[in-house]
Each structure stands twice: as structure tokens, then as C-alpha cells.
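sry for the spam today, last one i promise. C-alpha cells for design, 510 residues
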């Protein structure tokens, strides 16, 4: 029987362990933390339950397929609650766009946003002779946008998301050029939103979703409007018990089929037989050696290449300053140069009372300096002066997330990733950024939602910053969503899911 070691118990590791165990292999899952789930883990404090990372359950068909592949019905493991509406997008001037799966409601939101824009324009043009207000695309723009997003979703699903391009000839098919045109890979999400929507509010409300992938709408290929299709057509859901429930049940299925799941089991290195070009086992941080026939690495790919193999080394912070002790292998330099997604400062707040001013499970607060805020995150690797943020209240849908009469609130403020592999840059003072982000979030929530004394309502608090993400889950540069999915880092151009030199080492996950 083949013995497979899975390094990490995140969503990717858990799903792979379940599939391998279901196929009859001997599986050992090794997780460095005392808890499972990685970025889908829970934080539990004072009776409050927080989703540490993922909170939006999208594309339910993918989760269904994962459980079906191991002979299980997902509804026997997970109870889902649907978010109705999906969320509110709140703007600095108090305006609101509500996004939902109800197309009639979306049409009303578009009409209302255009009416607000017309009013503002009429004020600006008052007294200017001959000035003509701009024409607005109206609901026709919405429908054209939704149709395009649906096409992006369907084509991406069939030809990208569900396929692994391991060779250039699989990838370089002439008809893929036609596909690329249909997917608008050279256009951006922002430019397409501008094509279909006439107001700044709507353009922002239908473009910020690229941040689910840790990318700016000004850089993300237009293809990623597939996310908007996913949430509008398929809905946003929430697993009762928290997002971790998905991982927990997959690990349960794996265990039922004989897999061993060990926590507090940090893998320090992968043991390699250089002559054979194969991994022969792993060595834990406490020195324990575990032999195996194959390794599936669920730890962040760039982190793994720079930490777990015989030629691993972390690129020094300032490669130009000093000659490193030993030359950095070319493949490591290349991996270090790849673009990473952003990170977050995440606040986990247990509230003394229900914050009913937050009407839904999800609310988006958008920055007034929309474009600049992305520049600060992705070019400056910093916290914007006027940051956008996302607020999640799981207890709005699932009362088990908070004690009776109270609320669990998680706030994600996107920030740049760490400047260096394992440490922040000199200009990245996370304590100071955290303080500024906290003040901003509290003042904007109070202002936009008319809440008084929000800070005093916080009973329990925990904060994650890029360094926390890096340390807790070995995320390279503290990047929340791994390597960027920009057009030059997807499909065949993304590092392979199989190790370049050792044929029995595979990568799974973000
Ligand atoms: C703040 C935030 C919000 C998000 N929101 C959403 C959302 O709303 N919806 C959504 O679908 N996705 C969301 N995501 C993304 C989602 O959480 C990730 O895509 C997913 O959880 C990644 O799973 P993974 O298995 O690839 O990696 P991980 O979850 O990182 O799992 C890797 C595991 O490996 C372990 N590990 C690492 N090194 C070692 C080692 N040496 N030895 C042993 N174990 C090791 C880690 O501890 C970890 O448990 C969010 C992510 C973040 C950070």
C-alpha cells in the first residue's frame, strides 16, 4: 500500500487526504498547529467563534463535487445558510449599493445609483449653458455585464479552473487565442466595469470583488468578473458552525477511511534520495522521521521551496547589500520574484451587544480614494490612507457564533504583503498600521452606520497582521492568498503542482 504524507491540514490538504484515503492509500496528515484548517480555521474566545480567514462560501457545486468524489453527500455533513441579500456596499458619502441574487433588485439598485449620479451632475452643470448630462447605460449595462461575467465563469471553469496545464503544447493550442479573446484576458476588471456602468459607485461595487483573490481590479484580468457571476448567480452561503466545518468534515471522512491526522506535527524538512530524485520521507521539527512513498505539500508553495528541501534558502532582505553565504539557486530567485497577493490586518471582535446597524452577514466599506488605495496596497505594500474594509457578522446567520444577545464581528483591512520573505520592510511598522486601521474602521463604522461608542462595545479582541499570517501558517511574505493569479502567473505559467526535481512531491492548495 502506498503511504502518502500530506503536509498541512488546510482545505487543500484535507480534500486531498480524503480523496487519497478513499482511493485506498495509507495517508498521514501532518499539521504544524494545534488546530486544523489553516486559513479556514476558527478562533474561539469568550464564547465567540470567528472564522480566521474564509467566510464567503461561493461556488457550492465545487464543494458538492469534492464530497461526491469521496462517496459522500455534502448535505449529510454541512448545513448551509444563504445570505439574503449578498451584501451592502457602503460609500464614504453615505450612499449604498445592495448586491443580491435577485436581478429585479439589482435593476432597482442600478436605477437608484444612476439617479443619484444624475442629480449630482445636474448640480454640477447648473448654470453652465449648453452643458449636456452624460447618457447612462441603465439596466441594459447591468444585463450585458452579467452576461459577460457568466461567459467568463463558464469558459474559465471548463478550460482553466478544472484543468492542469503541465506542458507547453497542452497550453499553446491555437484555439486558446480565441478563448483568450472571449475571456478578455488582456483587459482589466475595472475597464470592463467602466464599459458597462455609467456611475462611479456602480463601477466600484462591481469591481472590488477581485480582492477576494487578493488582487487589484485595476490589474486583475477582466476574466475574474467570474467571481461576480459566482456570487450573483450561485449566491453566497455560510456553513453552520463556521467555514472550518468544511475542512473538519473532509478530515473526518479521511479518518474514517483510515487516514491519520496529527496536529502539533511541524515538518522541518523533506527527506530526499538525491540519487533516485525522489522524496523518501519527512522529518518533523522534533526530529521524528516518517517514511513515505509520496509527499503532498499543502504548505504555501513558495514557502515550501524556500524552507523544506535540501537546496532551500530564504532570499536575503537586501540581496544587493551583501553577498549571501551561499548562492541562491536560480529557481528560488525566480519564485521570490513572482508577484504575491495582498495581506490583511484582520480584527476579531466579540461585541457586548448585537450590532443591528450591520443588517447583514457581510458589509463592504469602500474607500473614497478607490484607485489610490489599491496603489498603496500593491505598489507601496502598505496600508492606504483611506482604506476599504470588509465586515463579517457570522452571528447574523448562525447564532451559534456568539453568546445570546451579542455579535461576532470580523473585519478585514487589506494591506500590502511583507517586503521580504520572512520579515517586514523597515517601512512596514505593523503595530502602527494596526492602530491606524483600528481607528479608521471604528470611526467609519460609527459615521456610516450611525453607531455611538463602538470601541466601548468590544468585549473580546484579537488581531492578525501580515507577520501573524506568515508565522501561523507559513505564508510566504505573509501574503493572504498566495501567488497572484495575474495573467502571467496562471495555467502553464504558474509553478507546477509537481516538484521540478522530485517526481513524488506534489503541491496542493492556494
Ligand atoms: C483573511 C482571509 C480571508 C479569506 N476569505 C475567503 C473567503 O471568504 N472565501 C474563500 O473561498 N476563500 C477565502 N480565503 C482564502 C481561503 O481561506 C484559502 O484559499 C484556503 O483556506 C487555502 O487553503 P490551503 O489548503 O491552500 O492553505 P492553508 O489554509 O494555508 O493550509 C495550509 C496548512 O499547512 C500547514 N503547514 C504549513 N507549513 C507546515 C509545515 N511545515 N508542517 C506542517 N504543517 C504546515 C498550515 O499550518 C496550514 O494549516 C481567505 C483567506 C484569508 C487569509
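last one done:
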Amino acid at each position: 500500500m502506498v503511504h502518502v504524507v500530506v503536509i498541512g491540514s488546510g482545505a487543500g490538504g484535507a480534500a486531498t487526504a480524503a480523496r487519497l484515503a478513499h482511493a485506498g492509500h495509507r495517508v498521514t496528515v501532518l499539521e504544524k498547529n494545534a488546530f486544523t484548517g489553516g486559513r479556514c480555521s476558527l478562533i474561539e474566545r469568550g464564547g465567540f467563534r470567528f472564522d480566521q480567514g474564509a467566510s464567503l462560501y461561493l461556488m457550492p457545486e465545487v464543494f458538492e463535487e469534492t464530497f461526491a468524489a469521496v462517496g459522500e453527500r455534502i448535505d449529510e455533513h454541512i448545513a448551509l445558510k444563504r445570505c439574503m441579500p449578498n451584501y451592502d456596499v457602503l460609500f464614504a458619502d453615505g450612499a449604498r449599493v445592495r448586491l443580491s441574487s435577485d436581478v429585479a433588485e439589482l435593476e432597482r439598485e442600478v436605477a437608484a445609483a444612476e439617479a443619484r449620479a444624475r442629480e449630482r451632475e445636474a448640480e454640477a452643470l447648473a448654470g453652465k449653458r449648453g452643458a449636456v448630462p452624460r447618457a447612462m447605460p441603465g439596466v441594459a449595462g447591468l444585463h450585458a455585464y452579467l452576461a459577460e461575467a457568466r461567459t467568463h465563469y463558464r469558459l474559465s471553469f471548463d478550460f482553466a479552473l478544472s484543468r492542469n496545464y503541465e506542458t507547453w503544447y497542452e497550453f499553446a493550442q491555437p484555439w486558446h487565442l480565441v478563448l483568450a479573446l472571449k475571456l478578455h484576458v488582456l483587459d482589466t476588471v475595472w475597464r470592463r466595469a467602466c464599459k458597462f456602468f455609467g456611475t462611479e459607485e456602480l463601477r466600484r461595487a462591481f469591481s472590488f470583488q477581485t480582492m477576494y483573490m487578493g488582487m487589484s481590479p485595476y490589474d486583475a484580468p477582466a476574466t475574474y468578473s467570474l467571481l461576480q457571476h459566482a456570487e450573483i448567480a450561485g449566491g453566497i452561503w455560510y456553513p453552520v458552525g463556521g467555514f472550518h466545518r468544511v475542512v473538519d468534515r473532509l478530515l473526518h471522512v479521511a479518518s474514517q477511511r483510515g487516514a491519520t491526522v496529527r496536529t502539533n506535527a511541524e515538518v522541518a524538512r523533506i527527506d530526499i534520495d538525491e540519487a533516485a530524485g525522489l522524496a523518501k520521507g519527512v522529518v518533523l521539527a522534533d526530529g521524528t522521521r516518517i517514511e513515505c512513498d509520496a509527499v503532498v505539500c499543502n504548505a504555501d508553495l513558495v514557502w515550501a521551496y524556500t524552507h523544506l528541501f535540501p537546496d532551500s534558502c530564504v532570499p536575503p532582505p537586501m540581496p544587493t547589500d551583501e553577498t549571501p553565504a551561499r548562492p541562491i539557486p536560480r529557481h528560488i530567485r525566480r519564485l521570490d520574484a513572482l508577484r504575491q497577493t495582498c495581506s490583511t490586518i484582520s480584527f476579531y471582535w466579540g461585541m457586548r451587544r448585537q450590532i443591528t446597524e450591520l443588517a447583514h452577514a457581510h458589509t463592504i466599506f469602500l474607500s473614497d480614494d478607490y484607485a489610490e488605495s489599491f496603489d498603496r496596497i500593491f505598489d507601496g505594500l502598505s496600508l492606504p490612507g483611506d482604506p476599504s474594509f470588509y465586515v463579517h457578522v457570522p452571528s447574523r446567520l448562525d447564532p451559534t457564533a456568539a453568546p445570546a444577545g451579542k455579535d461576532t464581528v470580523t473585519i478585514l483591512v487589506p494591506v500590502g504583503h511583507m517586503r521580504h520573505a520572512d520579515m517586514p520592510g523597515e517601512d512596514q511598522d505593523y503595530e502602527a498600521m494596526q492602530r491606524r486601521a483600528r481607528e479608521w474602521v471604528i470611526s467609519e463604522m460609527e459615521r456610516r452606520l450611525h453607531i455611538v461608542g463602538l470601541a466601548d462595545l468590544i468585549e473580546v479582541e484579537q488581531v492578525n497582521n501580515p507577520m501573524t499570517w506568515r508565522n501561523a501558517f507559513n505564508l510566504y511574505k505573509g501574503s493572504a492568498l498566495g501567488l497572484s493569479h495575474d495573467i502571467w502567473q496562471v495555467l502553464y505559467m504558474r509553478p507546477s503542482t509537481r516538484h521540478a526535481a522530485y517526481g513524488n512531491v506534489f503541491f496542493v492548495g492556494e
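The chain has three domains: 3-82+242-336+485-507, 103-110+138-234, 337-478. ok im logging off now
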